[in-house]
Amino acid sequence: MNGQTIDAQRKPLRGRRARPSSVDPCNAARSGDGLYCAASLGAPADSQLYLCRARRTVRVTACAHGCTVHPPGTPDECTSAPDSGAAFYLPLACGRSAPVLQGHHGSFSHNGMNTWAYDFTLPRGTPVYAMESGRVTHVRSAERPGSACWNGGGRRCIEHSNYLSILHADGSRTSYLHLDAPEVARGAIVQRGQRIGRSGNTGFSTRPHLHVQRQSNCARWFCQSRPLSFRDAGMPTTGAHVTSRNCP
Ligand SMILES: [Zn+2]
Q1: Which of 190, 213, 222, 244 is a plausible cystine mate for 117, CB 3.0–4.6 Å?
Q2: Distances (CA, A) of 209 to 32, 46, 78, 148, 247
Q3: 37 CA distance to ligand 1 middle (Å)
Q4: Which CATH class is domain 97-243?
Q5: Span 89-105, pLDDT tens digits
Q6: Closest of 81, 121, 116 to residue 100, by C-alpha
Q7: Neighbouring residues of 151: CB distance < 8 A, sequence distance ≥ 6
Q8: CB within 5 A of ion ligand 1: which residues?
Q9: Is the pTM of this model over 0.85?
């Protein structure tokens, strides 16, 4: 998220003293517990993000750059700060080409949190390169040859991918999934175009490929994706062939 949290503790409403103007905005939360822009709740302050639970306000965040409304079922979020020079390139070696197995809004699995992700078909062990400079925040390398989700698996393997995530100067993170092995440690500073790992087929995956996405910087390793456009490929669609200009 990108904003300042406001103490939302409200005095409990007492019986007849409650007036319509003091109805909890989260009473209008129609998609269950979660994050809602004020606009989604019909509340007047449109730059606020409500965390609703059981139709009660748990927390209100003032978004510095406005609030982005998503379709029902996808959590709303504070709008990210304008990009501060972030320049994302394909996660491939300079000059290497690859087919786009699934683009953003792909029908197989790029919806909800994954909406803006890209999958590239790559043979196992293909070197992977940083799409932009930043600091490594999350690394997982627990899957090893012979483990249950090493060679792809169904939804049960969704938390069993080897991955890494990099935080960038614009406040967003990029994540690289299904790796055979990350090659950088948590906390490392990496440069755009630096080799950071080898692709694989770990986790929720049906064939060797690399899944990348730009996402919010939330506490978890996997967060709501955000639009990602490559300087060297734009926003390629499923079936396209792309060629990396992620050159030194
Ligand atoms: Zn994917």
Answers
A1: 213
A2: 34, 40, 31, 18, 21
A3: 27
A4: mainly beta
A5: 999 999 999 999 999 99
A6: 121
A7: 201, 202
A8: 117, 119, 211
A9: no
Q: How far is the CA of 111 from the centre of ligand 1 (A)?
A: 10
Centroid of ligand 1 to alpha carbon of 79 (angstroms):
23
Closest CA to 210 of 149, 161, 167: 161
Task: Determine the distance separating the centroid of ligand 1 and the alpha carbon of 162, expressed in angstroms.
Answer: 14
- Tokens 């499923």 correspond to 238
Q: What b-and-e string marks burial along 119-130, b requiring 16 or more CB atoms within 10 Å of the CB?
A: bbbbebebebbb
How do residues 111-131 score in pLDDT, each as one tens digit?
Answer: 989 999 999 999 999 999 999
> Ligand 1 centroid to 118 CA: how many Å?
6
Whole-Å CA distances, 56 to 10, 23, 181: 10, 10, 43
pLDDT at 9 over 60: no
Q: Where are the domains of the chain?
A: 3-78, 97-243
Closest CA to 28 of 9, 6, 44: 44
Ligand 1: distance of its center to the CA of 117 in Å?
6
| Per-residue CA distances from 188 to 27, 34, 57, 166, 185 (Å) | 44, 33, 38, 9, 6
